[in-house]
């Protein structure tokens, strides 16, 4: 544990022996057997005094990369994090492991802060969490210079990137750390993987000599699925009832209004759900976040304002009811599922209205041309992911500049149920010529709803009103259903063969349209599944809905007994259940059935401190079960509400207004989100 200066480390003379100490710390304190991926290399580098920039996916295990150096090197590890609302939980979790942790932020009163500062100065803290705004204060810098610092960790380092959604001006001041403490190693960590962000972090934090560690961004336990949107809330309900009853999860919606509506809808249908968005007052927000962390099986319906840095290990699903604005956003959000490495689902419903709405938001939004172009290219990449007929995981990894392990991952919807593609050239021509005729013959532009009515030969009030039944294209598209036409329109928009314009999202041609109309270009389309078939296929493959169900039936009561015991301990100690043990740990205990403290200590996630605190309690639960009849039938889990069919046939649209609202497919006319309600 000798002190090594940064220069020595860079020259490659890091002390031998730190290696085994690092591994020993992982096992003793955290109770994990092995490092994941790049963790060990990062930790060794930092322990030896080097600077590091670390890119790892959400839930990849970045925290250990600074926590272990903080434990191994002399002094206190100072962690800069913007997630003030989570600091208490992070500190609680570390203390449960026997790590001496504390935090300083604006939520504390003077006395609390003084206590932590005194502990720091006395060398009694292994880890100190700090909000970035505190580092602008001279008092904080003075305090830090009076103590001994082992490492500076800059978590969520993408907050320094000025173009990013999470930009925090206070992060810009962090370059001072390298100037004031040149001998203290710095480690910057983020899950945002784009090249531009990566460069900006390195430059703005002033870390030109840092070693860069880029982990694999694959999250193999997450199953990616994107289904055509018909009636999103009902589809979501069916997905939850069929596959995730009783599981904790996050449902992302774009607008605050739909967050509220979705949470209400789920509650009405027997699913415990709460809303979370920036429009709620701080008290409600933190109460809902605390419930999510502490309770089992709560669903949070949220805008993107929710989730960053939340280390809840057993989030079993992340659902999107609206299209995210970028692949980066999608990947960070879906990455919040399955941090414990157990099977989890990333599910999204996506439809024509999403494309129209996002394009509209970009066209009518603020920002200069460059800003809009960037937003449009982010959206294009997201649409390409939605419309691909290839493996979604392979496409995601390629997007992040990584080589997928295989062309087919076997754990995404396109791998599980390969979609058929078909030659859509003729139908594309029919749709585009309708747009052309309206423009040329009538000087009109309409949204997709009216154009589809014309193609289907429907004499709706609006068709009669505009004499559209007199057009030569009237009724030329009767070979497809309305839902199929919507799929065609959506895919043409996604492929840039057609565009939307203006407040009402009217359809217009693009430069590319001409090649289709002129028969110089074939249009391949993904076949629309009449029903979300994938949900069914996947249900067959993995009946397992919960961790308990993944166990042999005779072990389920053991797992449930351990969970009940854990729940009681959590309540008594006022901490989330997973701070005591993760589900994955309880599952392994049920499988291994240890009968001694020594045996229990070999289970993953049972470190020294936890063994000392909870070991006897766990063994007592197991001993009691041994006395009782352990062969009782696991509770029959009846599937409720299987009748909630996912595809309610689209109603004949209530053709209100000019040509806006009729774009919506489902029976329920979903209100358009108002831009100011969207949490960017
Ligand atoms: N070597 C390991 N073995 C087993 N579990 C691990 C290991 N490393 C980390 N974990 C677990 O993985 C989970 C995610 O870790 P962590 O919170 O560090 O993720 P993160 O990379 O910071 O993600 P985010 O970007 O969301 O902040 C935690 O529950 C942690 O206990
Ligand atoms: Mg983290
Ligand atoms: Zn795949």
UniProtKB/TrEMBL annotation:
Q: Which residues form the HRDC domain?
A: 552-632
Compositionally biased spans, kind Low complexity: 659-668
Its Enzyme Commission number(s) read 5.6.2.4
Catalytic activity annotation? Couples ATP hydrolysis with the unwinding of duplex DNA by translocating in the 3'-5' direction
The prosthetic group or cofactor this protein requires is: Zn(2+); Mg(2+)
Q: Which InterPro entries match?
A: DEAD/DEAH_box_helicase_dom (IPR011545), DNA_helicase_ATP-dep_RecQ (IPR004589), DNA_helicase_ATP-dep_RecQ_bac (IPR006293), Helicase_ATP-bd (IPR014001), Helicase_C-like (IPR001650), HRDC-like_sf (IPR010997), HRDC_dom (IPR002121), HRDC_dom_sf (IPR044876)
UniProt biased composition (Acidic residues)? 669-680
Give every Helicase C-terminal domain span.
232-383
Question: What keywords appear on the UniProt entry?
Answer: ATP-binding, DNA damage, DNA recombination, DNA repair, DNA-binding, Helicase, Hydrolase, Isomerase, Metal-binding, Nucleotide-binding, Zinc
User: Gly residues composition bias: which ranges?
Assistant: 642-658
Q: Name one Pfam family in it.
A: DEAD
Which residues lie within the region annotated Disordered? 630-680
Presence of the UniProt keyword DNA repair in the record: yes
GO function terms (MF aspect): DNA helicase activity; hydrolase activity
Q: The Helicase ATP-binding domain covers which part of the protein?
A: 43-211
Q: Which family does it belong to?
A: Belongs to the helicase family. RecQ subfamily.
This protein is called: DNA helicase RecQ
Q: What is the lineage of its organism?
A: Bacteria, Bacillati, Actinomycetota, Actinomycetes, Kitasatosporales
Gene that codes for this? Answer: recQ
